[in-house]
Amino acid sequence: MSEGKNRRTNIRFRDPDNTVVNLYIKEGTNEIPLKGLIVNESFKGMAFICVGNIDLSYGAEIFWIEAENIITECEVIRCKEVEESVYSLAIKIKE
Length: 95
Prior knowledge:
By secondary structure, the protein is mainly β.
């Protein structure tokens, strides 16, 4: 990658309403719910902040509950602990 080149291919949109996003993680047959506060989003994913004990690594599968019958499969592209039990996550929609 050349220096100064923007690695992002999609425009990010800030969420002025601080919308809560509902997700879940599958562990075997269990679905573990997860809520986050959206920081920004694009057409291919989003970044959000959540609180709790989260053990997600790059490439982990996560499911975004967009509406009652709309669940979108996503992939973790970043999970960073910013404070104790406070995480910054970025996910992308699987194609």
